[in-house]
Amino acid sequence: MIEAIRIISIVAIPALIVLVLGYGHIKGVKVYDTFVEGAKEGLTTVLRIFPYMVAMFVAIGVFRSSGAMDFLVKVLAPLTNLVGMPTEVLPLALMRPVSGIASIGILGEVLKTYGSDSFIGRVASTMMGSTETIFYTLSLYFGAVGIKKARYTLIGSLLADIAGVAASIIICTLVFGR
Q1: H/E element holding 174?
Q2: At what angle do helices 100-114 and 119-130 cross, to 10 degrees?
Q3: What is the pLDDT of residue 167?
């Protein structure tokens, strides 16, 4: 069984590429020309969203370097303790909606400090998989297509993120205990 899975994992990507190219050829699509046109559009999209990405990365750097993150964690710690959220995962909960890279770094620090089998490590790992980089995604995708009004999308996304954080704490408490 393990050998079959290994063979499938080696063959899957090349087989998918051959399948797509073959299907395009059978349908009479100029596959190479279509690929080049798509690559050209991709580069245009990258150039269009680049300013949004730079702005997000600068804002994240300023937020973390200024000490605002540490201040916010100290201010919110009594509230998180009240609802049963480990204070150690609060930086992850705050950074995850903003930046995937920064939140991966925070997750790595949490796992290195507390271990992956600790309650804190499990909550942080579950939280990472249950939440999304909202502001990055909104700025990237909405900026790419020129959408300026994102209020309702932002509210819905933040509520979903809060639900993901709450579910991470509740599920880890029920499954693993404290």
Answers
A1: helix 151-176
A2: 160
A3: 95
